[in-house]
Amino acid sequence: MLVTMKELLDEAKVGGYAVPAPNVDNEHNLRAAIEAAEEMNSPVIIGHICGYNPDIQYFGRIATDLARRAKVKVAINLDHGGSFEDCMAGIQAGFTSIMIDRSQSSFDENVSEVKELAKAAHALGVSVEAELGHVGVGQNYAVDGKQMLTDPDEAVRFVKETNVDCLAVAVGTAHGVYQGTPKIRFELLEELTEKIPVPLVLHGGSGSGDENLSRCAKLGICKVNLSNDLRKAAIESLLKQDISGDGAYEMYNYLADGYKAKLKHYIEILGSKGMGGELND
Ligand SMILES: [Zn+2]
């Protein structure tokens, strides 16, 4: 069932769990993500980063078709939407949500660009995610992990002025592989949850630690983006196989096995198992 991201996140906020947002870029990992969600009866947000598939219109057609046929609720989100044109292309491709990432712009620029795009997206029934503070990359964790955290009062103003449906916050996670140990600011997260009326999003779920993620889900994070860990699990599963005979023909199945197993693990951790609104055939 294809739904908006707002619907999934509003339900997660009430239910006190987080919906996984696996990073997907082709038909194989798309099918793996939806199958994992169906097997766990979990909602799922397909996260597609602009540019990872060379043909977003084609990707959108496959993703929306598979989502409509899924037994669980599926939203399709354009992750880290870049230019205005990229975001519009995502909407045209059928995405039910777009993230407008202006987290490296000034507060005022971030507000004005997000506000403009949110107005257009909402008019077409598409949800909007933005980011305030900045979730950096793991290699710069020593600096970004401390200096770019979300300010709660700014965040309240931001949500009010932009009318976004959910907000990605920087509370100590990073994208990719951490250089050093992740330190999540739980007190900051609690304050953000208390003050901000819309669901909160965590980027950089991979490598952040199961206990940390589970605690974040209980403290108000309603969506966790996952990429590196899923891709690594897929590759590790493939590398374990014997490909001396006909094994090479199973390449995509081996990749899917690893991807699915890791995603199912995270569905347990985030508490979204059983929340997918499973449809009967
Ligand atoms: Zn991200």
UniProtKB/TrEMBL annotation:
<dbReference type="InterPro" id="IPR000771">
    <property type="entry name" value="FBA_II"/>
</dbReference>
<dbReference type="InterPro" id="IPR013785">
    <property type="entry name" value="Aldolase_TIM"/>
</dbReference>
<dbReference type="Pfam" id="PF01116">
    <property type="entry name" value="F_bP_aldolase"/>
</dbReference>
<protein>
    <submittedName>
        <fullName>Class II fructose-bisphosphate aldolase</fullName>
    </submittedName>
</protein>
<dbReference type="InterPro" id="IPR050246">
    <property type="entry name" value="Class_II_FBP_aldolase"/>
</dbReference>
